[in-house]
Amino acid sequence: MNNAPSTQRSISSSSDVRVLRRPSRRILVTGGAGFLGSHLCERLLAEGHQVLCLDSFATGHTRNISHLLRNPAFTLVRHDVVEPFAAEVDEIYNLACPASPPDYQADPVHTTKTNVLGALNLLELAKQRNIKIFQASTSEVYGDPHVHPQPESYWGNVNPIGPRSCYDEGKRCAETLFFDYHRRYGVEIKVVRIFNTYGPRMRPEDGRVVSNFIVQALKGDDITIYGDGSQTRSFCFVDDLIDGFVRLMNAPKSVTGPVNLGNPGEFTIGELARQVIDLTGSRSKIVNLALPIDDPRQRRPDIAIAARDLDWQPKVPLAEGLKETIRYFDRLLTLECQDLAE
Ligand code: NAD
Ligand code: UDP
């Protein structure tokens, strides 16, 4: 997908060295034009930092960051993390990677490269500059878990050769690299394992369950439950998650993670579908489709470590977060209809 903005400022090629001369911290956010990355960029700018947003626009979108392009503290670079990158920054948040199963399975080899080579390239940058680096890992490192809820000490149950493996094993290998750079070279690391997070700026077509159900409900299309809908997930609202990111990055050096961030409220996918129908007042009907291969049966974070080390817990209940997300998609779909009509 080519979503680069025509009004893009300060674009560098992969070999450029960016120099940001301002007093506050200079922070590199990879995947900054994506769902979570754009919220993180916004939060860091609000705290007075300089943000260098790096994105390949594989799954990111200009509408997520267009309002930031006028901010002189914000710089956008189009780059693929598979290639090395140099920048004079003080901290790195590595979020670059498609997160939705259809997205990361569309080019699985590139997904593995993004996770593994991306981590390697950014860890090298952190090592060279002696700066701390944050990794967006995932609850997928637990695979289809035999331990419930999942504490960080659980090593997981992951298929190494299935269609989800490019993501799951890629993220596991990235964690390995982070801890080896920490032990071998003393790089300061912050590794977070994110559980399903939703909110405004998910792509309507990205295929994840919350965006799918809301868009289907708003359009009056069938709500597509994969399998019988008894599988569970725990859904965290984006603002809660971003707060956890910043707390982890600013925690003492000894707090490396991995630390689970997610909302321990656990819902079946059938319950989620019914909530979305209720909140939208939709007349959509539910249809059951085939369950994807290796779809995890259950997911719920044990967040005791986040509570202890970061004094963090999610605040936004599912119904509240869904209402805000529904408002976002409602506006977006209305705008898309207007664009089509013009
Ligand atoms: P997203 O797909 O909306 O955003 C990912 C961003 O990374 C996009 O802007 C995309 O263009 C960019 N990107 C992808 N490959 C790249 C590459 N090779 N080089 C440079 N940029 C690249 O997904 P998201 O939900 O915002 O997820 C962000 C991060 O959080 C990902 O690393 C994902 O694995 C992790 N995560 C997210 C969730 C969640 O529920 N949202 C759960 C677990 C982990
Ligand atoms: N899912 C579903 N209908 C959809 C999209 C997803 O029933 O339209 C299911 C999917 O099979 C999984 C759960 O919802 O059991 C969460 O899927 P998602 O892709 O959002 O995240 P992940 O599987 O990575 O947790």
TrEMBL record:
SUPFAM superfamilies in UniProt: NAD(P)-binding Rossmann-fold domains
BP GO annotations: D-xylose metabolic process; UDP-D-xylose biosynthetic process
Subcellular location: Cytoplasm
CC terms in the record's Gene Ontology section: cytoplasm
Source organism superkingdom: Bacteria
Domain NAD-dependent epimerase/dehydratase span(s) in chain numbering: 27-262
Annotated GO MF terms: NAD+ binding; UDP-glucuronate decarboxylase activity
Cofactor requirements of the protein: NAD(+)
Signal peptide (UniProt feature, chain positions): none
Keywords, alphabetical: Cytoplasm, Decarboxylase, Lyase, NAD
Identification of the protein by name: UDP-glucuronate decarboxylase
